[in-house]
Amino acid sequence: MITKRIIPCLDVQDGRVVKGINFTDLKDIHDPVNLAAYYNQQGADELVFYDITASAQGRKLFTDVLKRTAAEIFIPLTVGGGINQVQDFERVLQCGADKVSVNSGAVNNPLLIKEAAKRYGSQCVVLSVDVKRVGDDYHVYTHGGRQDTGIDAFEWLLMAEAYGAGEVVINSMDADGVKHGFDLPLLQRVTETVSLPIIASGGAGGMEDFLELFALPGIDAGLAASIFHYREVEIEQLKQYLARYDLPIRIAETKGRRGDGYQI
Question: In the chain, where are the structural domains located?
Answer without folding.
Answer: 5-243
